[in-house]
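Render this sequence as a predicted structure.
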Amino acid sequence: MTRTKLGTFVGISILIALWGSCGSASILKKSPENVVKAFFKAANDAKYSEAEGYLAASTKVLMAAAGGIKKFADEQTRDGKIDRVEIVKVETRGEGAKVYYKIHYKDGQTKDDDASLIKENGEWKISG
């Protein structure tokens, strides 16, 4: 391979790698509904620090006072027994959103709930 072809190959490889690292994961985190889904996925997998990353700063403080992210996550997921989270409806207004969802548990039971989100430093975060 000549130097020019090698340089082009390396350049294209770097662009592909950068595109992949900035691709679907960051896009999925941008919408309020995907933040809710990502939060429950992390909580269900007992990835508490990852789940906590989807919370607004004020919510983290309140959650710490109420027993912490682990307690909340384990209660909501019934100790990792969520099968899926269905988004029912999303209402967005400026830097606020409300996501209505239904949790489907592995035993067939469901739970309807909603989450409020705010934009914090340009990213959607669960605020209540």
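Summary. DSSP finds six helices and four strands in the chain. Residues 31-126 form a domain with the Nuclear Transport Factor 2; Chain: A, fold (CATH 3.10.450.100).
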